[in-house]
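Form 7-S
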Amino acid sequence: MIFFFSSQTADESGGLSGKILSAILSVFFSDAAELPFQDSGFFSEGFHSFFRKLVHFLEYGVLGILWTLTTRCGHWFEKPCKAWRIVLPFCISLLYAVSDEIHQLFVDGRSGEIRDVCIDFSGACTGILILTLIAKRIQKNRKSA
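Output:
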């Protein structure tokens, strides 16, 4: 999914995220097209940009969660390699964030930026940490029960 969205040109990507953001705003406001910030350029430059970065953060959060689940399931990482349950998802998420930005260098109108790697990796780290804390809490509750 991430690779597919990164393969879109800047116009395609911006158009899609603009439609999604407009749909979300229309749920909260009866006529999102007439909101005061629409005319100021805030929507197209500030709020739309923030929304796009938030979506990147969230999609990499999902990636981090999925890799963490992968390392926690099965018998890949028993006690001798328990640290890899956390280290591997971090490493894979960082490598994917870097490769995604490199990939965008070859897509029309897109650019690869270190700032975006940081946003993406922060999302992955958040997902990994949240899932790890939930797993620890579940283990603690099972031991006390």
